[in-house]
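Weekly modeling sync, notes
Attendees: S.R. (lead), two postdocs, one rotation student

Agenda item 3: backlog of single-chain predictions. S.R. asked that every request posted to the team notebook include the full sequence so nobody has to chase files. The rotation student volunteered to paste the first one in as an example of the format we agreed on. Action items at the bottom.

Example entry:
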Amino acid sequence: MKIHRAREVLEVTDADLTGSSFNDVKMKDVTFENINMSGIRINDANLSGAEITNANVTGMTIDGIQVTDLLRVFRGQ
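Predicted structure, as returned to the notebook:
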């Protein structure tokens, strides 16, 4: 299914979007809960104000830096 040049509020539940792509999409004030985003790639994104809680960040990198390393340094461990 393609959604092109649409302004819609979507409620997606119990879905498998594996292999999907999102390009030039506004996702302001969107909530993701109980999701598997392993292997995703985010490029050229505005993540200001983004909040991630209770997440498994093993293997996640930001600009090539392991997030687990960043958190360990931040927490002084």
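Discussion: group reviewed the output briefly. The helical segments are 67-74.
Action items: rotation student to repeat for the remaining queue; S.R. to check formatting next week.
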